[in-house]
Write a structure and sequence with these properties.
Blueprint: H1 2-39, H2 46-82, H3 85-91, H4 96-143, E1 157-160, E2 163-164, E3 169-177, E4 186-197, E5 203-215, E6 231-238, E7 241-243, H5 266-297, H6 327-390, H7 397-421, H8 427-450, H9 458-473
Antiparallel strand pairs: 1-3, 2-3, 3-4, 4-5, 5-6, 5-7
Length: 474
């Protein structure tokens, strides 16, 4: 048994390591293609890009690890079945479940490691990735200008400098402004200048010294007018302002790195979730108090009356049920109440939506710590019996089957997570729905593999239909 266990473990470990690193490489290439315009050719050091890719690779483990487990399981048992080694194991009286035990121990170790990784290492990697990306986007202001090369990183502008000092001082500056003036460029030349950010971080200021600005006029129809003499204006100092919206990315909030949800472990997620719940309760109490105050403010009845009156039926036209002398005052009170409510709704509704969305996101991320570990076990119990059934090794059919099943798992998980974050599905159910849906499939495949079912044998289906049609002819 020890030799069989070692054989199975060796047959599993080799393709698992190979497929894991291949998948990590492919996912890193996708990441590089996404950020290639912002990283390549902008003056960043090579080790800075490698560091960013290193931290980004941590997030790719959630996709690479389950797919590697699925693919290596199919390849392992498919190769054993193709070489009749699995038949020899079964002929020795060893069932498929017993043969899977050593690999199950390996998968359980991977499961525990993936949980610890999700809870401790991944939050730190996300924190490092977010802070480094934020630093790059800020340092990009000084790095994006390379001497002797026109840079178009800022939409509508082309900037070129002759030289650049270590402290960020630029010399021999030339700016082509294509943003205004109907497409006719405005040229700015300056001997020196320096880039700075505004206090709110939304704009970039280029402080220029000792320069001249050339500007040509356009006709009313936007065509270039060669007869119009261009204007020239000299300046000692000027500070054109550029919009920095092009530098914004859809990544981590730079204002709250440490408290961002993807950067927290289980303990931090529970603490943040409770804090958000308290904020939601406080907001709801204050809103109800504010609305109630508006009604009490225009309620002229003092105290309570001891007399009980029967409820009065109100028709469609409410004004008919109001006495003539009180209609004007009632309308004014109703208008004031509505105005008071509408004054609070624009402030309350967005805050309520933001807090609710973040609260749901904490619940989603809490469950994600466990779903990565559970997916390893689930996909192993799909891949191992599937490989024993198809009895094909190598990188052909096993890859197709693995990608097909993983796409089903990934699509279900992604759609359910998005629906849960929108508030249309319970976050716990949304994060576990893929496991719930595919668990019966794993049990079915394990049963079929145990009884040596020819589930994917085309010849078996041909034989079945041949016998079926022969019976129909008789």
């Amino acid at each position: 048994m020890k030799k069989i266990h070692l054989l199975l473990i060796k047959a599993f470990i080799r393709p698992f390591i190979a497929t894991f690193f291949v998948m990590m490489f492919i996912l890193l290439m996708f990441f590089l293609f996404k950020w290639i315009d912002d990283l390549i050719g902008k003056g960043f050091e090579w080790y800075t890009i490698l560091e960013l890719m290193y931290y980004a690779s941590a997030a790719n483990v959630s996709m690479a690890l389950p797919l590697s487990v699925l693919l290596s399981s199919i390849m392992t048992f498919g190769t054993l079945g193709e070489n009749y080694e699995l038949v020899a194991i079964k002929s020795a009286g060893i069932s498929l479940q017993r043969a899977m035990r050593p690999l199950l121990v390996v998968i359980l170790m991977l499961t525990i490691a993936s949980f610890l990784f999700s809870n401790y290492m991944l939050p730190k990697a996300n924190l490092k990735f977010g802070s480094l990306l934020y630093d790059i986007r800020n340092k990009k202001l000084s790095f994006l200008i390379k001497p002797g090369v026109f840079n178009n990183a800022i939409p509508g502008y082309a900037i070129r400098v002759d030289s650049k000092d270590e402290d960020g001082m630029l010399h021999g500056i030339m700016i082509y402004d294509h943003k205004d003036n109907n497409g006719i460029p405005k040229v700015i030349l300056a001997k020196e200048g320096k880039m700075e950010k505004t206090a709110d971080g939304k704009s970039l200021i280029l402080r220029l010294k000792n320069g001249v600005q050339y500007e040509e006029q356009a006709k009313n129809n936007g065509m270039y007018n060669p007869r119009q003499v261009f204007s020239r204006r000299r300046f000692k100092e000027t500070a054109p302002e550029f919009d920095m919206s092009s530098f914004d990315g859809n990544t981590t909030d730079p204002n709250a790195f440490g408290n961002s949800t993807p950067m927290l472990n289980l303990k931090g997620l529970v603490k943040k979730r409770d804090s958000l719940k308290r904020q939601l309760d406080t907001l709801q109490i204050n809103t109800i108090a504010s609305f109630t105050g508006n009604f009490k403010q225009f309620n002229t009845t003092k105290g309570y009356t001891k007399y009980k009156t029967a409820p009065k039926k109100i028709d469609d036209v409410i004004l008919k049920d109001i006495p003539n002398g009180s209609r004007k005052q009632s309308l004014e009170n109703a208008t004031n109440v509505v105005a008071g409510i509408m004054q609070h709704v624009p402030n309350w509704a967005p805050r309520q939506n933001d807090l609710t969305g973040e609260w749901i996101f904490t619940k989603v991320e809490y469950q994600r710590k466990f779903t990565l570990a559970a997916s390893c076990i689930l996909l192993f119990f799909i891949g191992a019996p599937l490989g024993a059934i198809i009895r094909k090794g190598g990188m052909g059919l096993p890859v197709v089957m693995a990608i097909s099943f993983f796409l089903v798992y990934h699509i279900i998980t992604t759609v359910a997570e998005k629906t849960a974050r929108e508030g249309n599905l319970n976050p716990i159910f949304g994060m576990w729905i893929a496991v719930i849906v595919l668990s019966p499939l794993a049990a079915f495949l394990t049963y079929k593999a145990t009884v040596d079912s020819a589930l994917f044998d085309i010849n078996a289906y041909k034989l079945f239909f041949t016998k079926f049609f022969k019976k129909k002819e008789k």
